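Q: Predict the bound structure with iron/sulfur cluster.
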Amino acid sequence: MIKKILNKFINNDIKEDKYAYSKDLKFGTIAKDKAPDTWVRSTCGYCGVGCGLYIGVKDGKPVRTKGDPSHPVSHGTLCPKGLTEHEMVVSSNRVSSPMIKKDGKLNAVEWDEAFTHTSNKFKEIQNKYGKNAVACISTGQFLTEDFYTLGKFVQLGLETNNYDGNTTLCMASAVMGYKQSFGSDGPPSSYEDFSYADVIMLIGANIADNHPILKLHIAKNKKITGKKPKIIVVDPRFSKTANMADVFVPIAPRSDLALINGLCYIIMEQGWEDTKFIQDKTSGYKEFRKHIMQKYPPQEVAIITGIDVKELYEIAQLYAGANSALSAWTMGVNQSSIGTDTVSAICNLALITGNLGRKGASPFSITGQCNAMGTREFGFTSSIPGYRNFANDTDRAVFADIINVPSSLIPTARGYSYPQIIDAIDRGEIKALWVTATNPLVSFPDQNKLRRALKKLDILVVQDAFMSETALEADVLFSAATWSEKEGTYTNSERRCNYAKKAVEPLGKSMSDANIVIEFSKYFEGKYELLFQNFQSSEDIFEEIKKVSAGQLCDYSGMSYKKIEELGGIQWPCNTLYPEGKKRLYTDGFECKTEDGKAKLLALDWQPLAESCNQSFPLNLNTGRTVEQWHTRTKTKTITLLNDLAPQAWIEINPLDAKKLEVESGDKITIASSRGLVDGLIVKVTQVVREGDCFVPFHFSEQLINAVTIADFDPKSFEPNFKQCAVNLYSQKHPQGIKQEEEKVVAEIAYQSTKVSQEYTVAEVIKKEN
Ligand code: SF4
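A: Predicted complex:
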């Protein structure tokens, strides 16, 4: 029954007048008599697919959501999260007023008190310890207008460059990889490339769960091209997406870079490369070829990846033989300590086979959050808005001139990345942290270390629309409006800038995130006048964003709110040359942003895991997502339908490991690494994971899997390696864990730790017991 209903949701096969929840199934609160008074056209605020939708409003509240049939991305369909998004706005978890913590309890206050208290504290800290003692974490959940305003204030108002986004946890490797290969960030592709490619290679991308609407574009392929595309799915886990595969490539965890290098070897060995494209459009081929041919023969690659030599040849032949091959990836590639280089390796493979700048032929990073792309373009975190470099004198001067501030105010270097900010707090260097619309106390790796660091702060300010786990720990809470309560733009994975319209008023005293920042700036002498006096509406902010982007790769100068709404979103660049936007980058006559305009072929190396499985922790943990929940459930934890479908975390283990532990599906087990442990995970015995691997979704604070994950980061992008760390599993019958006879005492203590707080690592538990 549930499946039938879910299918209805996925297919959006629900007629407007019949759209009501069954009371028997207790799926929600909407009844038939709650027909909306008005429908407001907008954009989904969850993920980077960027579906178009309508918000149904009755009596000033959002009561329904339905797909927009005219939207070019989603064609009227929505996933379960999109279809229940209106419930998020009226969640019992919302924050309706600014708050200040007194005697350990958050109390509602007026905005003036919250701003006065916080600004005094920030000034006191900056006077005593320097400007950079205040840090801020931004988010891909904001509208572009929100984080452009926030970035401007943090960098130029507070004058600290210790500013980064939660996008470092998901997209930073794609950014740095594109920069290495093409001289600039910016996915070169369109979703319609899924409809034109002969071969689609999905690498570490479980789109069935995480970007389900993209399957529509694959489904259209046969109709358009006349034949079904070959789908290659590369993943250590047989995910829902793997079910779509013609060729499933079950690689060893984090061996993707070696696989790609091995495919390049075979293609060059066999003479399958596109020599004209290489000569005309790339640089560095000689060194690249030498590197690959020396270090990545198929026999070596087979050992690293666990894929037979014969199969490697078959995959290479399939990819190289395609007229147009699309390689798309998400977190399986990005969330790795070699994520940046893996992204560039995927670009290498596309480049040697001429798969760039044509229909269906591209390396394509699919973003996670609804506006991860917008932060990359205008976030003011790892670059100056408009893809400008901090270190470039001209970039700084031009930007300062456009926004009419002294160029000496523009930082000459990026400050600390997100993980470096946490380390600096732990060292006592940063004393104040301002966290906006993100929830590190669930999403950041190695939670024990994070919790230890946050306790050292003089002040933690959280700006959010929801009472998240991090908000509960705040000294000051700025209550923000959420999706549908504010106006602005989101940019999706295919560079499409979508318009998100305001449908209802913000809850209680909440304000839009941009307005919070603008009002807060008035408590810092002269900053409002310097930075924001022209910002009377969100469209004013957008007009400045357009000016800042003019002439840059991410050019928005030809857009307007009206035009974006009329066209159902516009893909940048949009200017006089491309008045309705451009579907692909690096087409003929459209050069890369490198010194010679050519894409770079780079000699890159695979590296073994930072933490290999060992005697104490013999299994590899992979973490990820499920379609029914959003990130740390800040937005979805009170939505009945979604929680009926995915109420709690689970652990997938292979039947062979289940046999060793003597557990069945539905039993509860404990997982531990050297950093922490999680009790009470519900077992799913399944062939989806291989023997020695296990998988846990990261959404659930009640089973906080990031207590177990490792603080290991890509040195170029600073993105965490969420996908692999060494763990052991402990069952009632096997409290010693797997293959751990000699470690019995250790494991028993770990298993007994159901009585012990998750604040302790296994080592600390042992010490404590001794
Ligand atoms: Fe579309 Fe993503 Fe929203 Fe689902 S969550 S409706 S796939 S934008």
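A: The radius of gyration is 25 Å.
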